Amino acid sequence: MPPSPATPPVDVNLVPGTPPVLLAEPTGDAASWAAGYRDTLRALATEHGSVLVRGLGLRDADQTAAVFRHLGTGLLTEREAFAPRREYADGVYSSAQWPSYQPMCMHHELSYTLAAPGLLLFACLGAPDSGGATAVADASAVLDALPAELTARFEAEGWLLTRTYNDEIGATLTEAFGTDDRRAVERYCRGHAIDYAWQPDGALRTRQRRGAVLRHPVTGRRCWFNQIAFLSEWTMDPEVREYLMDVYGADALPFNTRYGGGDPIGEDVVQLLNSVYEAHTTREPWQAGDLMLVDNVRTAHSREPYEGPREVLVGMTDAVHLTAGAPTGEAMA
Question: Is 34 in contact with 27 (CB distance < 8 Å)?
Answer without folding.
Answer: no
